[in-house]
Amino acid sequence: MRVNIDEIKEGGLQRAWDLATEVVDEMVKGDNAGYRAKSPFHVDARLTRMERRVLFEGRARATLAAPCGRCLSPAEVEVPVDIQMTFVPDEEVRTRGEDAEDDRPNTRVKRRFAAEAVNEETYSGKVIDLHPVVREQLLLALPGYPVCQEGCKGLCSVCGANLNERECGCDRRVLDPRWAGLEKLKKP
Ligand SMILES: [Zn+2]
Ligand SMILES: [Zn+2]
User: Fold this and answer.
1) Are 37 and 85 in the same domain?
2) Which ligand is the nearest neighbour of the Cα of 76?
3) Taking the model in full, what pTM does it have?
4) Structural domain tally of the chain?
């Protein structure tokens, strides 16, 4: 997903990519929920340019599967990803960095700078790579706890049966050890 900024003319540039499932799998590999791509990831991009700053507006929708967080059967999720990111040439950032560099401790300056630049990425030369931004925004958009269905009943904590399929009849009342003493008192 590389764009040469010279390709971005006055009316902006429209581009689209279909990322193969292996590419998407690689993108989401670090996520704890264990997502895998179900289909190619379609990314629509619009790029507009002001001098050397480039605004990237992206729309994408990923279809992924992961084990359900309650019952472990496959859960499919559609993840919409909307991106608005400004790419700033790194020489501009360097000058700005020098301005911010006064006698304050380094860390504070850096933190303030980071807060200003939430929707900014830097690039050098003439080529912008959208891949890291798309990856980062996809990871942020992933549900942390995918479920196969809204009312998934999960697995029985005693025998492990899938409670969506059958009621096993186990006694699943969990006794909090802190109340166990009281439970004893209540009994005659
Ligand atoms: Zn489930
Ligand atoms: Zn059971």
Assistant:
1) yes
2) 1
3) 0.75
4) 2
CA–centroid distance, residue 156 to ligand 2 (Å): 5
Q: What distances in angstroms separate CA 32 from CA 8, 9, 20, 133, one per listed residue?
A: 38, 41, 21, 20
* pLDDT tens digits, 91-120: 877 776 555 555 555 554 554 455 455 688
Ligand nearest to the CA of 75: 1
Same domain, 134 and 84: yes
Q: How many A from CA of 126 to the centre of ligand 1?
A: 47
The predicted structure's pLDDT at residue 174: 72
User: Looking at the structure, do residues 25 and 76 belong to the same domain, yes or no?
Assistant: yes
Flag whether pLDDT at 133 surpasses 70: yes
Query: Alpha-carbon dihedral of residues 143, 117, 48, 98, nearest 10 degrees?
Result: -150
Pair 87, 53: CB distance under 8 Å: yes
Could you list the beta-strand ranges (E) of 12-70.
13-19, 36-37, 41-50, 53-67
Can you give the residue range of the structural domain that contains 184?
A: 155-188
